[in-house]
Specification:
This protein is an alpha+beta fold. The protein has helices spanning about 10, 25-35, 40-45, and strands at about 5, 20, 55-60, 60-65, 80-85. The protein has a single domain (about 5-85), classed as Ubiquitin-like (UB roll) (Roll), CATH 3.10.20.
Length: about 90
């Protein structure tokens, strides 16, 4: 099963330990995580269901390409990391 992990900055707001999830796409995997912890969804997705601008999701170390539909494929052994994008000057 794919594994989803959330960075500590998200864990400060919502209890979201790493979890094994079902799914063959990023969206399916995240929906599984949202079912376990519904408050996560509003931190990660916008009203249209895409990633919020300040969020980034990596699958096996590569940023997802489809930020709107989250259709990037995941394998049974995928590591999915959800984090806030950082910027600064």
């Amino acid at each position: 099963m794919p594994r989803v992990a959330f960075t500590p900055n998200l864990q400060r707001h919502v209890s979201c330990p790493p979890m094994d999830v079902a799914g063959t796409t990023v969206r399916e995997a995240l929906e599984y995580a949202f079912a376990a912890q519904p408050r996560l969804e509003r931190y990660i997705l916008d009203d249209a269901g895409g990633l919020r601008p300040h969020m980034v999701v990596f699958v096996d170390g590569t940023a997802v390409r489809d930020r709107e539909r989250l259709s990037d494929p995941v394998t049974d052994r995928a590591e999915i990391l959800v984090m806030q994008a950082l910027s600064g000057g």
